[in-house]
UniProtKB/TrEMBL annotation:
Protein name listed in UniProt: Nucleoprotein/polynucleotide-associated enzyme
One Pfam family from the record: DUF2058
Residues covered by region (Disordered): 19-39
Superkingdom as given in the UniProt entry: Bacteria
Amino acid sequence: MASLQDQFLKAGLVDKNKAKKLHQDKTKQKKVERRTGTESVDEARLAALEVQRKNAERARELNAQRDAAAAQKAVYAQIVQMVQANRQSKGNGDITYYYTHGTKIDKIYVSAEVQGHLTAGRLVIVCIDGKVELVPRVVADKIAERDESLVVRVKKTSDELDADDPYADYKIPDDFTW
């Protein structure tokens, strides 16, 4: 097989004198290196290795981001599947039930039985895709492990009151409506 230099000569990209001059320069440089005992640094090779290292690092970062997005999407799909499999009926919708989600106060219409389950903590509100669904507490705990922001948590119940609470003697009824 012909060398690259021979191929360039045949193609007419390099003339014979220039190829000879490059060969002479290369042999002179090797002689100088042998005499002085130093090695020349191939700057083009080092630059190419640095570019290759940077490209590999960038590819690793992009793969990590892609993997994280895929994992997040899989977790969201699990949450949607759990909600769809375990959602409970809201009832006839004759009683307004107020709840806070983040900083917003919102309401849903539920039956008296569902309101009792919500205040007792047996049912929990989950906000997903702009919809409000009711799921059992066990399922809500599993959803909260994956994404806490989707689950609406009820504040302290009457069983968990502080001992130093000055209003402990004044109980607020569970069926209090606004």
